[in-house]
Design a protein that fits this description.
Blueprint lengths: L2 H10 L1 H21 L5 E10 L7 H16 L10 E8 L6 E9 L2 H32 L4 H5 L10 H7 L10 E5 L5 E2 L4 H27 L5 H8 L3 E4 L3 H14 L6 E6 L6 H13 L4 E6 L14 E6 L7 H8 L2 E7 L5 H13 L6 E5 L2
Parallel strand pairs: 6-11, 7-9, 7-10, 8-9, 10-11
Antiparallel strand pairs: 1-3, 1-4, 1-5, 2-3
Length: 371
Protein backbone atom coordinates (compact mmCIF):
# COMPACT_ATOMS: atom_id res chain seq x y z
CA UNK A 1 0.00 0.00 0.00
CA UNK A 2 1.38 3.37 -1.01
CA UNK A 3 1.17 6.49 1.13
CA UNK A 4 -1.45 7.87 -1.23
CA UNK A 5 -3.55 4.72 -0.83
CA UNK A 6 -3.25 4.98 2.96
CA UNK A 7 -4.35 8.61 2.94
CA UNK A 8 -7.32 7.78 0.72
CA UNK A 9 -8.21 4.83 2.95
CA UNK A 10 -8.17 6.92 6.12
CA UNK A 11 -10.03 9.72 4.38
CA UNK A 12 -12.75 7.27 3.40
CA UNK A 13 -13.10 6.21 7.05
CA UNK A 14 -12.62 9.71 8.42
CA UNK A 15 -15.55 9.35 10.82
CA UNK A 16 -13.96 6.38 12.57
CA UNK A 17 -10.58 8.09 12.58
CA UNK A 18 -12.05 11.19 14.24
CA UNK A 19 -14.73 9.71 16.47
CA UNK A 20 -12.66 6.92 18.04
CA UNK A 21 -10.00 9.12 19.70
CA UNK A 22 -12.63 11.66 20.81
CA UNK A 23 -14.71 8.93 22.45
CA UNK A 24 -11.60 7.40 24.05
CA UNK A 25 -10.62 10.82 25.41
CA UNK A 26 -13.96 11.49 27.09
CA UNK A 27 -14.29 7.95 28.46
CA UNK A 28 -10.89 8.04 30.13
CA UNK A 29 -11.42 11.55 31.48
CA UNK A 30 -14.79 10.59 32.98
CA UNK A 31 -13.39 7.38 34.47
CA UNK A 32 -10.43 9.24 35.94
CA UNK A 33 -12.63 11.92 37.49
CA UNK A 34 -15.46 9.72 38.78
CA UNK A 35 -13.91 6.32 39.49
CA UNK A 36 -10.21 6.67 40.24
CA UNK A 37 -9.35 8.34 43.57
CA UNK A 38 -7.26 11.51 43.48
CA UNK A 39 -3.58 11.22 44.28
CA UNK A 40 -1.38 13.78 46.03
CA UNK A 41 2.30 13.87 46.75
CA UNK A 42 4.14 15.84 49.45
CA UNK A 43 7.92 15.92 49.83
CA UNK A 44 9.85 16.99 52.92
CA UNK A 45 13.64 17.13 52.94
CA UNK A 46 16.37 16.88 55.55
CA UNK A 47 19.56 18.87 55.07
CA UNK A 48 22.55 17.05 56.62
CA UNK A 49 25.89 18.60 57.47
CA UNK A 50 28.79 18.54 59.91
CA UNK A 51 30.74 21.80 59.80
CA UNK A 52 33.45 20.30 62.02
CA UNK A 53 34.29 17.67 59.42
CA UNK A 54 34.23 14.85 61.96
CA UNK A 55 31.67 12.83 60.04
CA UNK A 56 31.56 12.77 56.26
CA UNK A 57 28.38 13.62 54.43
CA UNK A 58 28.22 10.02 53.15
CA UNK A 59 28.21 8.67 56.71
CA UNK A 60 25.62 11.22 57.80
CA UNK A 61 23.34 10.18 54.97
CA UNK A 62 23.97 6.53 55.80
CA UNK A 63 22.66 7.10 59.32
CA UNK A 64 19.61 8.98 58.02
CA UNK A 65 18.88 6.30 55.43
CA UNK A 66 19.06 3.50 58.02
CA UNK A 67 16.65 5.26 60.34
CA UNK A 68 14.33 6.31 57.51
CA UNK A 69 14.09 2.72 56.27
CA UNK A 70 12.71 1.66 59.66
CA UNK A 71 10.35 4.64 59.88
CA UNK A 72 8.71 4.12 56.49
CA UNK A 73 8.58 0.30 56.68
CA UNK A 74 4.81 0.20 57.52
CA UNK A 75 4.07 2.14 54.31
CA UNK A 76 6.14 0.03 51.92
CA UNK A 77 3.99 -3.10 52.11
CA UNK A 78 2.08 -4.05 48.95
CA UNK A 79 -1.45 -3.36 50.24
CA UNK A 80 -0.67 -0.02 51.86
CA UNK A 81 -2.89 2.81 50.62
CA UNK A 82 -0.18 5.27 51.55
CA UNK A 83 3.11 5.01 49.69
CA UNK A 84 6.29 6.47 51.17
CA UNK A 85 9.73 6.64 49.61
CA UNK A 86 12.99 7.90 51.09
CA UNK A 87 16.18 8.62 49.20
CA UNK A 88 19.25 10.80 49.01
CA UNK A 89 18.86 14.01 47.08
CA UNK A 90 20.92 17.01 46.05
CA UNK A 91 19.70 20.56 46.52
CA UNK A 92 19.14 22.55 43.29
CA UNK A 93 22.16 24.72 44.14
CA UNK A 94 24.37 21.63 44.12
CA UNK A 95 25.90 22.54 47.49
CA UNK A 96 23.98 20.98 50.37
CA UNK A 97 23.38 17.25 50.70
CA UNK A 98 19.76 16.41 51.34
CA UNK A 99 17.58 13.45 52.17
CA UNK A 100 14.08 13.32 50.73
CA UNK A 101 10.93 11.80 52.24
CA UNK A 102 8.01 11.64 49.80
CA UNK A 103 4.45 10.59 50.69
CA UNK A 104 1.76 9.75 48.15
CA UNK A 105 -1.89 9.14 49.10
CA UNK A 106 -5.45 10.18 48.26
CA UNK A 107 -5.90 12.75 51.07
CA UNK A 108 -4.13 16.05 50.57
CA UNK A 109 -3.82 17.04 54.24
CA UNK A 110 -2.87 13.55 55.41
CA UNK A 111 -0.21 13.44 52.72
CA UNK A 112 1.26 16.78 53.78
CA UNK A 113 1.19 16.03 57.52
CA UNK A 114 2.70 12.55 57.24
CA UNK A 115 5.58 13.73 55.07
CA UNK A 116 6.53 16.40 57.59
CA UNK A 117 6.05 14.10 60.60
CA UNK A 118 8.25 11.37 59.09
CA UNK A 119 10.97 13.85 58.17
CA UNK A 120 10.91 15.34 61.68
CA UNK A 121 11.10 11.87 63.24
CA UNK A 122 14.02 10.77 61.06
CA UNK A 123 15.92 14.00 61.72
CA UNK A 124 15.34 13.78 65.48
CA UNK A 125 16.45 10.15 65.74
CA UNK A 126 19.50 10.84 63.57
CA UNK A 127 20.48 13.71 65.86
CA UNK A 128 19.99 11.46 68.89
CA UNK A 129 22.43 8.91 67.43
CA UNK A 130 25.21 11.44 67.19
CA UNK A 131 24.28 12.99 70.53
CA UNK A 132 24.67 9.50 72.07
CA UNK A 133 28.05 9.15 70.38
CA UNK A 134 29.12 12.49 71.76
CA UNK A 135 28.03 11.56 75.28
CA UNK A 136 29.81 8.19 75.08
CA UNK A 137 32.92 9.91 73.79
CA UNK A 138 32.94 12.36 76.68
CA UNK A 139 32.15 9.69 79.29
CA UNK A 140 34.70 7.01 78.34
CA UNK A 141 36.79 7.27 75.26
CA UNK A 142 38.49 3.91 75.68
CA UNK A 143 35.25 1.84 75.84
CA UNK A 144 34.89 1.06 72.15
CA UNK A 145 32.85 -2.09 72.78
CA UNK A 146 29.98 -0.15 74.35
CA UNK A 147 29.83 2.08 71.31
CA UNK A 148 30.07 -0.70 68.73
CA UNK A 149 27.33 -2.71 70.39
CA UNK A 150 24.82 0.11 70.54
CA UNK A 151 21.82 -0.64 68.26
CA UNK A 152 21.71 2.87 66.81
CA UNK A 153 25.39 2.84 65.86
CA UNK A 154 26.10 -0.72 64.79
CA UNK A 155 26.45 -1.04 61.02
CA UNK A 156 26.18 2.73 60.48
CA UNK A 157 29.61 4.11 61.38
CA UNK A 158 32.79 2.10 60.90
CA UNK A 159 34.99 1.16 63.81
CA UNK A 160 37.87 2.99 62.22
CA UNK A 161 35.90 6.22 62.27
CA UNK A 162 35.11 5.85 65.96
CA UNK A 163 38.65 4.90 66.78
CA UNK A 164 40.01 7.88 64.90
CA UNK A 165 37.59 10.19 66.68
CA UNK A 166 37.84 8.85 70.22
CA UNK A 167 40.69 10.34 72.17
CA UNK A 168 41.01 13.30 69.79
CA UNK A 169 39.71 16.82 69.76
CA UNK A 170 37.14 15.94 67.12
CA UNK A 171 33.50 15.97 68.15
CA UNK A 172 30.04 14.74 67.04
CA UNK A 173 28.11 17.66 68.52
CA UNK A 174 28.01 19.73 65.32
CA UNK A 175 26.23 17.08 63.22
CA UNK A 176 23.14 18.86 61.92
CA UNK A 177 19.84 17.55 60.51
CA UNK A 178 17.57 20.38 59.41
CA UNK A 179 14.04 19.60 58.24
CA UNK A 180 12.56 21.55 55.35
CA UNK A 181 8.83 20.94 55.73
CA UNK A 182 6.60 20.37 52.74
CA UNK A 183 4.27 23.38 52.36
CA UNK A 184 1.72 21.79 50.04
CA UNK A 185 0.71 18.49 48.52
CA UNK A 186 0.69 18.52 44.74
CA UNK A 187 -1.43 16.34 42.43
CA UNK A 188 0.51 13.19 41.68
CA UNK A 189 0.62 11.12 38.53
CA UNK A 190 -1.01 11.92 35.24
CA UNK A 191 -4.09 14.12 35.44
CA UNK A 192 -7.40 13.42 33.68
CA UNK A 193 -6.54 15.58 30.67
CA UNK A 194 -3.13 13.95 30.19
CA UNK A 195 -4.62 10.46 30.50
CA UNK A 196 -7.39 11.48 28.12
CA UNK A 197 -4.86 12.76 25.59
CA UNK A 198 -2.91 9.51 25.84
CA UNK A 199 -6.13 7.54 25.35
CA UNK A 200 -7.02 9.69 22.33
CA UNK A 201 -3.64 8.99 20.73
CA UNK A 202 -3.98 5.27 21.41
CA UNK A 203 -7.55 5.37 20.09
CA UNK A 204 -6.37 7.05 16.90
CA UNK A 205 -3.62 4.49 16.40
CA UNK A 206 -6.02 1.64 17.14
CA UNK A 207 -8.60 2.97 14.68
CA UNK A 208 -5.97 3.32 11.96
CA UNK A 209 -4.62 -0.16 12.68
CA UNK A 210 -8.09 -1.73 12.50
CA UNK A 211 -8.90 0.10 9.26
CA UNK A 212 -5.62 -0.98 7.66
CA UNK A 213 -6.13 -4.56 8.87
CA UNK A 214 -9.66 -4.75 7.46
CA UNK A 215 -8.42 -3.25 4.21
CA UNK A 216 -5.65 -5.87 4.03
CA UNK A 217 -8.21 -8.64 4.52
CA UNK A 218 -10.87 -7.28 2.13
CA UNK A 219 -8.41 -6.00 -0.50
CA UNK A 220 -10.82 -3.45 -2.01
CA UNK A 221 -10.40 -1.91 -5.43
CA UNK A 222 -8.59 1.35 -4.70
CA UNK A 223 -8.31 2.81 -8.16
CA UNK A 224 -8.29 2.53 -11.92
CA UNK A 225 -5.01 0.62 -12.02
CA UNK A 226 -6.46 -2.22 -9.91
CA UNK A 227 -9.27 -2.72 -12.43
CA UNK A 228 -6.99 -2.53 -15.46
CA UNK A 229 -4.57 -5.03 -13.91
CA UNK A 230 -7.31 -7.40 -12.72
CA UNK A 231 -9.18 -7.59 -16.04
CA UNK A 232 -6.37 -6.81 -18.45
CA UNK A 233 -8.70 -4.41 -20.26
CA UNK A 234 -9.01 -0.62 -20.13
CA UNK A 235 -11.38 1.31 -17.90
CA UNK A 236 -13.89 2.86 -20.30
CA UNK A 237 -15.40 5.33 -17.83
CA UNK A 238 -14.95 6.61 -14.29
CA UNK A 239 -17.73 8.00 -12.17
CA UNK A 240 -21.48 8.01 -12.36
CA UNK A 241 -23.89 10.22 -14.25
CA UNK A 242 -24.40 11.72 -17.68
CA UNK A 243 -20.79 12.57 -18.51
CA UNK A 244 -19.49 9.16 -17.45
CA UNK A 245 -22.26 7.37 -19.37
CA UNK A 246 -21.53 9.30 -22.56
CA UNK A 247 -17.84 8.46 -22.19
CA UNK A 248 -18.73 4.79 -21.64
CA UNK A 249 -20.98 4.60 -24.74
CA UNK A 250 -18.37 6.26 -26.90
CA UNK A 251 -15.58 3.97 -25.73
CA UNK A 252 -17.76 0.87 -26.14
CA UNK A 253 -18.23 1.84 -29.80
CA UNK A 254 -14.50 2.44 -30.18
CA UNK A 255 -13.60 -0.91 -28.65
CA UNK A 256 -16.34 -3.16 -30.04
CA UNK A 257 -16.09 -4.77 -33.49
CA UNK A 258 -19.14 -4.75 -35.70
CA UNK A 259 -22.64 -3.57 -34.94
CA UNK A 260 -23.56 -3.22 -31.29
CA UNK A 261 -26.91 -4.87 -30.71
CA UNK A 262 -26.55 -5.62 -27.01
CA UNK A 263 -24.36 -4.70 -24.06
CA UNK A 264 -23.89 -6.96 -21.05
CA UNK A 265 -23.29 -5.06 -17.82
CA UNK A 266 -21.76 -7.51 -15.36
CA UNK A 267 -21.18 -6.45 -11.71
CA UNK A 268 -18.18 -7.51 -9.66
CA UNK A 269 -20.06 -7.67 -6.36
CA UNK A 270 -23.47 -7.05 -4.86
CA UNK A 271 -23.67 -3.37 -5.81
CA UNK A 272 -25.38 -4.28 -9.08
CA UNK A 273 -25.31 -2.34 -12.34
CA UNK A 274 -28.39 -0.12 -12.10
CA UNK A 275 -26.16 2.90 -11.44
CA UNK A 276 -24.59 2.33 -14.86
CA UNK A 277 -27.48 0.89 -16.94
CA UNK A 278 -29.92 3.77 -16.62
CA UNK A 279 -27.39 6.45 -17.52
CA UNK A 280 -25.98 4.35 -20.36
CA UNK A 281 -29.42 3.95 -21.97
CA UNK A 282 -29.95 7.71 -21.73
CA UNK A 283 -26.56 8.34 -23.34
CA UNK A 284 -27.32 5.91 -26.19
CA UNK A 285 -30.69 7.51 -26.90
CA UNK A 286 -29.15 10.97 -26.95
CA UNK A 287 -27.17 9.79 -29.99
CA UNK A 288 -30.43 8.93 -31.80
CA UNK A 289 -30.30 5.19 -31.14
CA UNK A 290 -33.18 3.55 -29.34
CA UNK A 291 -32.11 1.57 -26.23
CA UNK A 292 -33.78 -0.43 -23.54
CA UNK A 293 -32.87 -2.31 -20.33
CA UNK A 294 -33.50 -6.00 -19.73
CA UNK A 295 -32.76 -7.68 -16.42
CA UNK A 296 -30.95 -11.02 -16.45
CA UNK A 297 -31.60 -13.31 -13.49
CA UNK A 298 -28.78 -15.23 -11.87
CA UNK A 299 -30.20 -18.62 -12.92
CA UNK A 300 -30.80 -17.66 -16.59
CA UNK A 301 -29.05 -19.89 -19.11
CA UNK A 302 -30.31 -18.35 -22.35
CA UNK A 303 -30.38 -14.68 -23.30
CA UNK A 304 -31.73 -13.13 -26.48
CA UNK A 305 -32.71 -9.70 -27.75
CA UNK A 306 -36.00 -9.72 -29.64
CA UNK A 307 -35.86 -6.14 -30.89
CA UNK A 308 -33.31 -5.67 -33.66
CA UNK A 309 -34.05 -1.97 -33.93
CA UNK A 310 -32.62 -1.04 -30.55
CA UNK A 311 -29.59 -1.62 -28.38
CA UNK A 312 -30.41 -3.88 -25.46
CA UNK A 313 -28.57 -3.19 -22.22
CA UNK A 314 -28.59 -6.34 -20.12
CA UNK A 315 -28.50 -5.68 -16.39
CA UNK A 316 -27.04 -8.83 -14.81
CA UNK A 317 -26.61 -10.16 -11.30
CA UNK A 318 -23.16 -11.03 -10.00
CA UNK A 319 -21.56 -14.35 -10.91
CA UNK A 320 -21.39 -15.48 -7.29
CA UNK A 321 -25.21 -15.69 -7.36
CA UNK A 322 -25.43 -17.69 -10.57
CA UNK A 323 -24.11 -18.11 -14.10
CA UNK A 324 -26.74 -16.00 -15.85
CA UNK A 325 -24.25 -13.16 -16.37
CA UNK A 326 -21.77 -15.52 -18.06
CA UNK A 327 -24.40 -16.79 -20.51
CA UNK A 328 -25.39 -13.20 -21.20
CA UNK A 329 -21.79 -12.13 -21.79
CA UNK A 330 -21.30 -14.91 -24.38
CA UNK A 331 -24.25 -13.65 -26.44
CA UNK A 332 -23.83 -9.89 -26.05
CA UNK A 333 -22.07 -7.68 -28.60
CA UNK A 334 -20.04 -6.05 -25.83
CA UNK A 335 -19.37 -6.96 -22.20
CA UNK A 336 -18.61 -4.31 -19.62
CA UNK A 337 -17.58 -5.25 -16.09
CA UNK A 338 -18.97 -2.76 -13.59
CA UNK A 339 -16.83 -2.21 -10.49
CA UNK A 340 -17.40 0.05 -7.48
CA UNK A 341 -14.36 1.70 -5.94
CA UNK A 342 -13.57 0.60 -2.35
CA UNK A 343 -16.68 -1.63 -2.15
CA UNK A 344 -15.75 -4.35 -4.62
CA UNK A 345 -12.61 -6.37 -3.93
CA UNK A 346 -9.63 -7.23 -6.08
CA UNK A 347 -10.03 -10.99 -5.45
CA UNK A 348 -13.67 -10.80 -6.59
CA UNK A 349 -12.58 -8.90 -9.71
CA UNK A 350 -10.00 -11.59 -10.43
CA UNK A 351 -12.68 -14.28 -10.02
CA UNK A 352 -14.91 -12.51 -12.56
CA UNK A 353 -12.03 -12.26 -15.02
CA UNK A 354 -11.21 -15.97 -14.66
CA UNK A 355 -14.84 -17.02 -15.09
CA UNK A 356 -15.30 -14.92 -18.22
CA UNK A 357 -12.09 -16.34 -19.65
CA UNK A 358 -13.43 -19.86 -19.10
CA UNK A 359 -16.66 -18.85 -20.84
CA UNK A 360 -14.68 -17.59 -23.81
CA UNK A 361 -15.86 -14.02 -23.33
CA UNK A 362 -13.78 -11.14 -24.62
CA UNK A 363 -14.34 -8.31 -22.18
CA UNK A 364 -14.73 -4.95 -23.88
CA UNK A 365 -13.74 -2.92 -20.87
CA UNK A 366 -14.76 -1.78 -17.41
CA UNK A 367 -16.92 0.94 -15.92
CA UNK A 368 -15.63 2.19 -12.57
CA UNK A 369 -17.96 3.89 -10.12
CA UNK A 370 -16.22 6.22 -7.69
CA UNK A 371 -17.67 7.43 -4.37
Amino acid sequence: MTLRDLINLLRRHVKAVVVTPVVAFFIIVMLTVTVLPPAYKATATITVSDPSGTVSTANLLSVVNTIATDEIAPYTVRDSKIKVTAKNSVAPSGGAQMFEVAVKCSDEQECLGLANDLAQSVALKSAEVFQALQEEDEAGRADLGALNNADDVAGVLSGSLLQDTLGSDRTFEFCSFTVNNAVEAEPAGAGPLLLGAAAAILGLLAACAVIVFIDAVRKPIRGKDDVTYGLNVPVLSEGEGRAAAEQLWANIQFRASGTIESICLLPVGDEGTSWCARHLVDAIERTGVHARILSVEADTNEVSSSDDSSVTVFECESLDRGMGAAYCAREASATVVCAVLWRDSRPALRTVADELELAGVSVTGAALRTD
